[in-house]
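Page 42, continued from yesterday. The earlier attempt failed because a stray header line got pasted into the input along with the sequence. Redoing it now with the clean sequence only.
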Amino acid sequence: MQPARAVFPALLLLAAAGVTSTAGCGGDAPTRAREGRLEVALREFHLSPARAEAARGPLAIAARNDGMLVHQLAIGRGRYALAVTPALGPGQSAVLEVRLPPGSYRLFDPRSNYDTLGLYGSLVVR
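This time it went through. Structure tokens are written below.
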């Protein structure tokens, strides 16, 4: 049974190496929230959309786990989370209901080091 334990981290590293993340890159225009709702997909190790904009006021961020591992979505500044979803298994979804003042925010997965592997993005509230 011990060899299987060694295989999982190796598979995780291979999966992370095979994914190219555009999070934080400035090439694409940000996705705009529509009617106070923003759809976000999480997977290993990428957040889509990587850049988003929303109007101030109530915002529902619908997070869907399209990956094979458990993920969470947090919104905050730096590593400080203002709101976070429960743990989402593959295929599961949750909605974060927030009211944010204008400013720049970070969308990220607070689990382990998932954000440093590329599972993060930005949200600008205007």
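Notes: The first helix runs from residue 2 to 18.
Reminder to self: strip header lines before submitting.
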